[in-house]
Amino acid sequence: MTHDPYILLGLPSHEDLTDEQVRQRYLQLIREFPPEQQPARFAAIRAAYEKIRTLHARAKYRLFGAGADETLDQIIEEVDRAAARPRPTLAHLFEAIETPKKL
Amino acid sequence: MAKKRLTDMPSAKAVKQYLAQNKFDLAAEEARKLMGFAPGAATAELLREALFALAGSYADRKQFADLNRLAREIEPHCRAAGAESILALGRLLLRGTQIGEVNRLIGELGDPEALTLRGELADYFIRAKHSPPLPDEWKPAYGAFQKALQLYGAERDDEARVALNDIGLGSPFLEWKIWLRGLLAWGAQDVGRALENWSRLNPKRLPYQLMAPLRAHADASWLLDQPALRDRLLQQYARLGSGGLGGQLRELRPQLAGRTGLAKSFKTAEAFLPRFQAAHPALVPRLADVFYHTMQRRGEPADLERFSKVFGRMPDDPSFDKLSAISFEQADEAERALALWQRHIDWLQVEAKWPPLLKRQAIAIIFRTMAGIVGRFDDLDPDDDPFDRPAKKTKSKTSGAAKVRPTPVDYLVRALEFAPDWEIAAAELMEASVDFDRVVEACAFAEQFLAANPNAIAVSRAYADILMLKFDHAGALIQLQRLRKANPFDAGIRNTLAECVLHCLYLFVRDADFENAQNLYEGERELLLSESPTMTTHWLYALYKKRKQTAEAEAEFRKIAPTKPLDAFLLVANAHLFKAKPAEKSAATKAYKATLAESPSAADTLLLFDGYAFFKLGGLDFTGMKTMHGGIVTATLNAGGDPKLTEHQGALLIANTSGQTTMPKFEKLAQTLGKRFPKNPIFKLCVVETWLAKNPEKRVPFKIVQLLRQAKNLVRDSADPKYKLLETRIDELTEELDPYADMRRLFDGFL
Questions:
Q1: Do B419 and A85 touch (CB under 8 A)?
Q2: Interface ipTM
Q3: CATH number of the domain at B9-133, please?
C-alpha cells in the first residue's frame, strides 16, 4: 500500500488545498472507515492526515517527506501481489527452484 | 628391518579427522589401509562412509568416470551391509547417470528400498532434458505424463486430466500424476483441491519440491511448519509470479541496506528496469524514491549521475540541489549547503510547477532551514555567564573586509516574507533578533505580528521572554496572562507568570503604588501561593513594612524561617531593595552567612539559586552581591554530597554551575554525581568537558575517551528525549579527541 497521503486521502496534490478541505475529507473517510471496524485503514488515514493537515505540513511533506517512507519491501510486496496466481510450466518450476534441495 | 612406528599405522581417528576436514580422498585411502590392517565390522562401516563421501564429492564436481569407478569398488561393501546401503549406492549411480546399473539394483532390491529407488529413477527421467533410456514397461506411463504436461501447457486441462488416467496406481510416475493433478487444480484457481493433491506427495521426491513454492504461497499453516525454508520458498514463488522481477528486486535489498557504495545497486536496477517499467510503470517512481532517499543517507557524488542514468530526473529535485544541500548540511559544510539551498529556492521560484501557496510555504521552510544552518555554525559560547549574556556578533559586523554572510535574522525575515503568518518562524525571528542585539526590532515585530495574529501562542511566549529580559515586566505580564488564558495548566507558563507577577509587585512597592500592588496581588494570589509561597511572604512583609502596617508585617515575618538559605537571602535582598537601616542589613547578612555555613541541602541550594537569579535579573545590585554569588556557586558545587540528592537535582546543580568548568570543585561535583548516577550521561560528559577545559593542550588520557564512549552508549540506549540533545556535543567531542579524524575524513570516499 502506498504511503502517499494524497493518494490515501483521495486528494489532489497538484493544486492548493485549504486546511478545511483536508479536514473535511479526513472526517468523511473516518466516518467511512471507523477505527472499531477497520483499525488498520483508520490508522493509515489518520497518519496520512497528520502529514498534510496544514499548509506548513503539506509543504514540509513535499520538501522532505515525499517518498521518504517508501521501502523496497513494499514495492516487492506489490509486485508479488500484482502478479496473478501463476500457471507455471514444468521448466518454469525447475527454474524457480534452481537446484532442488530436500525439504 | 626397521620396526614400523605406531604413528605410521592407519587409524580410525585419522579417517574421521580427514572426513571432518573434507579431505575425502585421504580419508578413503586411510580407510582402505585400515581395512587391510585391522578388518572388522566397524572398519568396514568407516570405509563405506569414506568411500561414499569421496563419491559424493566426485558427483558434486561432475567427475562421473571417477564416480562410477568408485561405485564399483563400493558395491561389495554395500552388499555386505544390507539393503539401505545398496539403496545409497543406487542413488550414487543415479547421480552418475548409470541408469542400467540402477535398474539392475532395483531388480535385486526388495521393497521398500526398490520402490524408493524406482521413484527416484522416475524423477530422474522426468528431469532429463532428452529422451531418457526408459525401461520398456515404463514407457506408456511416461508418455501419458508428458502428454498431460503438454496439454496443461496448452491450457487444455480437461484433456490433460484424461491423459493422466493412463498412469496406474503401481506406476513409478504415480507421484507425478498426483503432482500434475494438483497443478491443474491450481491453474483452475481451485487451491483447495490443489492442496489436497499435494498433501499426498512424498517429501523426499522431486514433485514435492516442485509444488513447495506454490504451496508456501497458498497454505499458511504448512508454511509455518517450514521455518527454515520460508524465505527461500517465498522467493521461489516470487520468481514464478513476476517473471523474476520480484527476485531481482529482492537482490537489491541487501545491496541497498549494506554499508558499501550504491554503484552495485544502480547496476542491478538498471538491468531489470526496462522490464520493470513495462510491467509496473506506477512502481518505478516509488523505486526511484527508495534510491533517492538512500543516496541522501549514504550516497556519493557519482551516484547522482548513476541515478539520472537509471531513473532520469527527480521531479521535485531535478538538479539534486536539495539532496546535495541536505548532504552538505549533514557534513557540516554550511557554505555549500546554503548555496545549494538558494539554488533550490531559485528553481522553485522559476521552474517548479507547484501550487502557488504550497510553493511559497516551501520556500519559507527552506529559508528557515538556512537560518538554522547559519545559527548552528555561529553558536553562542556555552560558557557564557547566564546573567550577562552578550549580544551575538557576526563576522560581517566586525570585519569590514570579510564577506557579508546573512544572519539567521536575515533568513527568517525572508521566510516570513513568503509565509507572513508562520508563527514558529516569527518566534524564532524574535529570539534570533535578541541574540543579534536587535531587541527593539524584535519587540516592534512582535507587536505587529500579534496584532495580525492575536492567537499566536509561540510569538506571545517569545515576546514575554524578551520583555522579561528587558525588565519590562508590565509588558511581559500582559503576554503571560494571555498565554495562561490559552493554556491554564501549562506549568512553565504558570511558573514564569508567577515570577513576572512578583517582579511587578516589587516594582509597585518600590514606587509606592500600593493600590495596583494590592489589586495585582489579589488577582494572582492563588498563583503566587502555589508557585512561589516563600517569595510571596517576603514580598508581603516588605509591602506591610513600607505601608507601616506593623502588625501585618510582624504576622508575615513570623512565617519566615531565617535559618533557611532562601529566606535568609530574601531578607538581605529586601533590606537592600528597600534601603533598610545598616543594622538591619548587617543582621540579615550575618543570618544569611550562617545558613551557608551549615552546608545547605541540594534542595535548599537550588531554591537559593533561583531566588538570587530573580533579584539579579530584576536589576538588584549592591555591594557584596558578587561575593554572594560566589558563595551560592560554592554551595551549589558542594551540594553534590547531599545524601538525599535526587538525579534531577543533580542535573540542576550542574546546569546552575555550568560556567565553572575550570573549577576543581565542578570537576569533583561532576565526578561525584557520575558515580552516584552511573546511568546518567550528563555527568560523564561534564567530567570530559571539565578535563578538556582544564587541559586544552594536553594529550587526552584513555579514561577520558572511555568516559565519552560510555556517555555516547548511555545516550544511544536511553529512551529519554532530553539525552538525545547531547548527541551532537558528544559527536563533536569524539571527533575532537580523535587525532586521525582529518585523515579519516580524507579517505572517507575511498573506504
A1: no
A2: 0.83
A3: 1.25.40.10
